[in-house]
């Protein structure tokens, strides 16, 4: 399925990359909800967390390790950050490609979540 994220992975839509390897891409959100707002996506198409299989679990673990690394590199690991995954339309997931929002750099207060309108 072609999505805005598949186009970013292909390079047809530019992004400000924070991290990239063979399996994962992380880039700054174009409409940040906080001073630090990075999207972390697998390059493998997985529509949502509901579609993750047992064979995808090492990839999910790697995404979390990458999130830790990015938080450290961007200076929010110690002060705190959120790692948010929206799953399904009622959660705010508008892009049908598994992704995480890493958000920090400010006191986030009562922020409940982030919709994909920020993606």
Automatic annotation (TrEMBL):
The family database entries (CDD domains) matched by this protein are listed as: PKCI_related (cd01276)
A GO molecular function annotation here is:
catalytic activity
Catalytic residues of the enzyme: 99 (tele-amp-histidine intermediate)
* Stored Pfam families: HIT (PF01230)
Q: Which residues cross the membrane?
A: none
Residue span, HIT domain: 4-113
Matches recorded under InterPro entries? Histidine_triad_HIT, HIT-like, HIT-like_sf
PANTHER family recorded: HISTIDINE TRIAD HIT PROTEIN
Protein name per the record:
Histidine triad (HIT) family protein
């Amino acid at each position: 399925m072609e999505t805005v994220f598949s186009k970013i992975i292909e390079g047809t839509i530019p992004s400000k990359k924070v991290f990239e390897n063979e399996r994962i891409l992380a880039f700054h959100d174009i409409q940040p909800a906080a001073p630090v707002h990075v999207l972390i996506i697998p390059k493998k198409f997985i529509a949502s967390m509901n579609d993750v299989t047992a064979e995808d679990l090492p990839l999910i673990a790697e995404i979390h390790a990458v999130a830790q690394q990015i938080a450290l590199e961007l200076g929010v690991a110690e002060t705190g950050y959120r790692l948010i995954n929206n799953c399904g339309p009622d959660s705010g997931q508008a892009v049908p490609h598994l992704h995480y929002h890493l958000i920090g750099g400010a006191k986030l207060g009562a922020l409940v979540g982030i919709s994909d309108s920020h993606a």
